[in-house]
Specification:
38% helix; globular; 13 strands; alpha/beta
């Protein structure tokens, strides 16, 4: 990965030709490199660069989908926003685990935990499957989410992380999207207004992303919003981040959404999750 300073210098060379004919269209290289987020959602640190408060916190727990968490993490990191991974899982002794194992057996090291983090500018709740449904019944975690949400600028979810926000009562009356699996029904269970056909949805301070890779799009939309004080409404800065990621998806076949998937394939995938009773379990999750 290119250092952020080199990324921005390189990325901003691209619009020079357009700037020569339309100087008001883009910030200069120097201005773009120096651009700060507004509002500033980076963490506050002390003179020794130790964390003090705030910032972007991405909740991780045993069984989380790795890409749900790491897609936004890399996107925010490439934008210079310094996100943190925050553990919500305890060990047998009741201590928060610093190493979290995803549902694909990837291990992630948390920077902090919900016991020592009380305020954030942005909270991201990634999803998974049964472990996410269990998290949505964890009163301690839900109370922490509700407490942190009181002071966030944005509270967000990726994929089935919407179940957790829903169980915390944060989706009631809110337009929201989620993973494709029984999306409209399960969003409605939590009092949301389903918008499952959308890749991400903003409703006030609540932002929800659809399944897995949609977390990258949701994070890019948030990057564009906080860097919209450039002369192009955040477009230049967001393009620089997208170029850093070389984010230009071109899958080998059509698919990835219910309406683009062969009905037989869709039915088989939904049957698999239904076989294990996942939707039935989620339908029983109360709003706390």
């Amino acid at each position: 990965m290119l250092p952020r300073s080199l990324l921005l210098i390189a990325a901003t060379l691209l619009p020079l030709a357009a700037s020569a004919t339309d100087p008001a269209r883009h910030l200069s290289r120097e201005e773009l490199i120096a651009l700060a987020p507004s509002p500033d959602i980076r963490p506050t640190v002390d003179a020794t660069k130790q964390y003090v408060s705030g910032g972007i916190g991405i909740l991780i727990y045993d069984g989380v989908n790795a890409m749900d968490a790491l897609g936004p993490y890399q996107t925010f990191s490439s934008a210079g926003l310094r996100p943190m991974l925050i553990s919500a899982t305890k060990d047998a002794q009741g201590n928060y685990k610093s190493v979290i194992t995803s549902n694909s057996n990837m291990q992630m090291t948390a920077h902090r935990n919900i016991g020592n983090t009380t305020d954030l500018e942005v909270l991201v709740v990634p999803g998974g499957a049964f472990e996410t449904a269990l998290l949505a019944t964890n009163t301690e975690v839900l109370n922490w989410i509700k407490a942190v949400d009181r002071n966030t600028i944005w509270t967000t979810s990726v994929c089935t992380g919407s179940w957790v926000l829903g169980a915390a009562g944060l989706l009631q009356g809110k337009k929201a999207t989620s993973n494709w699996y029984h999306a409209d029904e399960l969003l409605a269970h939590f009092g949301a207004i389903p918008k499952s056909g959308q890749r991400y949805v903003f409703d006030g301070k609540i932002i929800t992303g659809a399944g897995v890779t949609a977390g990258i799009d949701m994070a890019l939309a948030l990057v564009k919003k906080v860097f919209q004080n450039d002369l192009n409404g955040g477009r230049d800065y967001t393009q620089a981040v997208m170029l850093e990621l070389q984010y230009d998806p071109r899958p080998p076949i059509k698919g990835g959404a219910p309406e683009k998937t062969d009905p037989a394939v869709f039915d088989a995938m939904q049957w698999m999750y239904d076989y294990f009773g996942l939707a039935d379990y989620v339908r029983q999750i109360p709003i706390q």
